[in-house]
Design a protein that fits this description.
It is a single chain. By secondary structure, the chain is an alpha+beta fold. It has a domain at 70-250 and 297-367. Helix content is 37%, strand content 17%. The chain has 14 helices and 13 strands. A 9-stranded mixed beta sheet has the order 5-4-10-2-1-3-11-12-13. Strands 6, 7, 8 and 9 form a 4-stranded antiparallel beta sheet that branches. Strand 12 and strand 13 (366-367) form a beta hairpin. Helix 5 packs across helix 12 (235-243) and helix 8 (130-140) crosses helix 11 (202-208). It is globular, with a radius of gyration of 21 Å.
C-alpha cells in the first residue's frame, strides 16, 4: 500500500509540473523530459538535484505569475521592444556568450584536480558564518532552515559568477577582484542545468534585510534561487550593465575623502556597514566605489521594469550563479591565475586532466604551454 501511495504521489508531482507549464505559459515539456524527470523523482534518493530543481522552478514560476510580468517569456517579449542594450542581453543569454567562473585564492590551486571545487561547508572556510549561511540559503530555497540542513553538504551550492568570454568587448564585474586571484572557468554544458542564479551576491542581498524574521517567506521571484532555465528573468538587469559596457550591474560612485575603508568600519560599525553601502575600493583621488546593498536597480524613468521587476535589487555588481552538486575536474574547462604561476607539476596535472592553464597576468589571458 505504501509503495502504491508513493508511486501516486510522484505521478501527482509530475502532473503539477505539467500544470505549471500550461498555466504559466512556459515552454512545453517534452515526453522525454517528463519521463526523465519522473525517473529521477522515482529514485529512493530524496536529495536528488532534479527533485530540488523541480521545486525551485515551481516556486519561482508561482511567484512570478503573481506579478505583472507573469512568465519569463513575457519579460523577454517586453525587453525586445526596449532597444539595443536589451537585445544585446538577449543575444548573450541565447548564445551563452559568457563564461561561468569561480574565483579562488591561490592556496586552492594544488587541490583542484584531486578534490574538485568545494563549497564553504566542505572547505571549512567561513565556519563562523555557517548559521547565517544556512538561514540565507534556506530562505532562497523556500525551505525551513532545518529542512535545508538535512541536505548533504556536497549538494549545497557553490558560488560562481558570469564573466565575459575572452575577446568580448564587455568588461567583467569589478567586485570579483576581491574574491581571489585564481579562477576556474567551468564547462557550461555540464553545470548550467543544475545552476540557479541571483541578481548580485545572494548572501549580502539577504543580509541587508537582517531585520526580517529568521525564517523569511519570499514574496518575489528574485528572493528565491532561480533555475537557469528561467534565465530570461535576467534580461532587464543585464541590460543595465551593458549600458555601462559591463557584464554585470551598475555601481554607484560617491565622493568620500576623509575616511578610508578601515576608518569607515571603525566609526560606523559592521552593522551600519552592511545596512548602507559596501565599499569596494578607494581610488587614488579619494573616490570610493560603493556597491549597493538591497538598493533598487536604476531603470530609466518610465521603464516597465522600474517598479515591480525585483524587490531586493542588487548586491555587488555580478550575476551570482549557484552550482548544485559536486564540481570535479571533468567540469572544469580552464584554470587562470594572476600573480605567481603554479609549480610546473601543478600545471602538468591540470593539463593531464584536460584543463587548459592560462596566465591572467596578461590581457587577454595567455595559454600556458610547458616546455
Amino acid at each position: 500500500m505504501k509503495l502504491v501511495f508513493s508511486f501516486l504521489s510522484k505521478i501527482i508531482l509530475i502532473l503539477g509540473l505539467i500544470y505549471v507549464n500550461v498555466s504559466f505559459g512556459v515552454e512545453t515539456l517534452t515526453c522525454d523530459t517528463l519521463f526523465s524527470e519522473f525517473a529521477a523523482l522515482n529514485k529512493p534518493d530524496q536529495f536528488s538535484v532534479v527533485n530540488l530543481f523541480a521545486r525551485f522552478r515551481q516556486n519561482t514560476l508561482e511567484l512570478l505569475s503573481q506579478s505583472e510580468f507573469k512568465t519569463p517569456s513575457h519579460v523577454r517579449q517586453i525587453a525586445k521592444s526596449l532597444g539595443t542594450n536589451y537585445l544585446k542581453a538577449i543575444e548573450i543569454l541565447d548564445n551563452e556568450d559568457f563564461d561561468v567562473a569561480i574565483q579562488l585564492d591561490n592556496k586552492s590551486r594544488e587541490h583542484i584536480v584531486s578534490k574538485g571545487i568545494l563549497n564553504f561547508r566542505q572547505s571549512g572556510r567561513s565556519q563562523g558564518t555557517m548559521t547565517s549561511r544556512d538561514l540565507v540559503e534556506s530562505d532562497y530555497s523556500a525551505m525551513t532552515t532545518g529542512e535545508f540542513q538535512t541536505l548533504p553538504d556536497s549538494i549545497k551550492p557553490k558560488s560562481a559568477y558570469l564573466r565575459p568570454k575572452i575577446g568580448s568587448t564587455l568588461n567583467p564585474p569589478e567586485a570579483i577582484q576581491y574574491l581571489g586571484g585564481d579562477r576556474v572557468i567551468l564547462k557550461k554544458s555540464r553545470i548550467l542545468d543544475r545552476s540557479t542564479f541571483t541578481i548580485g551576491d545572494s548572501f549580502n542581498r539577504r543580509h541587508y534585510w537582517r531585520d526580517l524574521p529568521d525564517q523569511y517567506i519570499a514574496n518575489s521571484w528574485d528572493q528565491l534561487f532561480t533555475p537557469w532555465s528561467e534565465k530570461d528573468l535576467l534580461i532587464p538587469a543585464l541590460a543595465l550593465g551593458i549600458r555601462e559596457n559591463k557584464l554585470g550591474f551598475p555601481m554607484f560612485l560617491l565622493k568620500e575623502t576623509e575616511k578610508d575603508f578601515n576608518e569607515y568600519i571603525n566609526e560606523f560599525g559592521r552593522g551600519t556597514f552592511f545596512k548602507n553601502n559596501v565599499i569596494i575600493k578607494t581610488l587614488e583621488d579619494g573616490t570610493i566605489i560603493y556597491s549597493p546593498i538591497g538598493g533598487t536597480l536604476d531603470f530609466p524613468e518610465g521603464s516597465p521594469f522600474s517598479n515591480s521587476y525585483v524587490k531586493w535589487g542588487a548586491s555587488f555588481d555580478y550575476v551570482e550563479i549557484q552550482i548544485w552538486d559536486s564540481i570535479d575536474a571533468s567540469d572544469i574547462e580552464a584554470f587562470e591565475f594572476t600573480g605567481i604561476a603554479p609549480e610546473d607539476d601543478v600545471i602538468q596535472n591540470f593539463i593531464a586532466n584536460g584543463i587548459e592553464v592560462r596566465d591572467a597576468n596578461f590581457s587577454p589571458p595567455r595559454k600556458v604551454i610547458l616546455k
